[in-house]
């Protein structure tokens, strides 16, 4: 019996406020072997290949079951069957320019919670034998790091042994499990009370990370507005090796480079809106992975929150990178509790969520996930590119996902369509600074 963790539960309630919590990847496939002479995708072949791998991805065969009051929090239960005709579908496009708009149209359709919370969409019509792909997963199933592991497992080779669906737990089983859970919680509380010195030490060690959130406020800018239903998606392509070299040159990490170039895009965006940038330091929240299991076993959400200052007042991208690298090096040393440990019950989570529409902790959101180093195949079809998709929540109208894949470093910008009609300005500034930092590194390598 697998109950949703507190962190997993926190991904369900935002949808009641109109904030969908889907994550996923947009892929470009070499689809020449997938398309027949009539121009149609061999969709049945793909469905059979995906169906053969479902036994090794349990969450793709399960649904969220909410028991009645007194029987505990929601849990994962096996679906009676998985209708792959509904989960794996094809859309015809008129060109690559339509791909991101098509993904956005799909993202706006809520997933049916009576079915497993995932979808795979294929898009024809991109030209040059390519096919688009959108793998959509609800955030309650996994976080970014776990999502990469799930993707690699799903796209692995060969069929797996099918397993029959387990029956729904009985009322007696649910009640007993709920009582065991309460007993374990009381035992943990008693252990903490019995060792007050250890408890105080843990609180003291976690205080610097908590102070990041509650100690300072984000500046007021046009980036924080109530979210509407629509999103605009744009992508940026980069080279992982050059980005890593640039990070090394300036004493930082790949994540620091990502944050520095995003800061450059934000600088351009605010200036184009007539807002001040001199001396302004924005704040972004960045998930920090806490997974301790082997990649193939990573399920659910296991991350903490880190707030990073973004000095938009600094015009030079290299100086900006050095500043961010020095700051994050300090912050990475903080002990961070899991996000789920702060709000353990659904009641508290739902009570807290309305505050996010008026929060002043962060101006934007950035998630950088290390992806597969080697190229993947999807039912034997080479995966050429991957771009991550991240959700927005509260009053944060702009977020960026970054994903490394087979030597690439690709970013997807997700913006509220109404609040950010000028997102092209942000994307252009981001791409310019990324090209600038990596070009200088490559020139230095050639000169050496």
- Tally of helical segments: 13
| Helix-and-strand structural type | alpha+beta
Strand order of the largest sheet: 5-6-7-2-13-12
The helix/strand series, from N terminus to C terminus, equals EHEHEEHEHEEHHHEHHEEHHHEEEEEH
Whole-angstrom Rg: 23 Å
What does the average pLDDT come to? 88
How much of the sequence is in beta strands? 15-25%
- Shape annotation: globular
Uncertain residue segments: none
| Helical residues, percent | 25-40%
Give the end-to-end Cα distance, rounded to a whole number of Å. 59 Å
The description of the largest β-sheet is: 6 strands, mixed
Beta strand count: 15
Any overview of this molecule?
This protein has 448 residues and is of the alpha+beta class. The chain has helices at residues 6-9, 43-53, 84-87, 99-107, 144-154, 171-194, 196-214, 240-249, 254-272, 317-331, 339-342, 346-352, 423-447, and strands at residues 2-3, 22-30, 62-65, 75-78, 88-92, 118-124, 130-138, 231-239, 281-289, 303-311, 364-369, 377-378, 381-389, 398-405, 408-416. It has a six-stranded mixed sheet with strand order 5-6-7-2-13-12, with helices on both faces. A hairpin with a 5-residue loop joins strand 6 (118-124) and strand 7. Helix 8 crosses helix 9 (254-272), helix 8 packs across helix 13 (423-447) and helix 9 (254-272) packs across helix 13. The longest helix has 25 residues, at 423-447. The radius of gyration is 23 Å and the shape is globular. The chain starts with a strand and ends with a helix. 40% of the residues are buried. The model has no long low-confidence stretch (mean pLDDT 88).
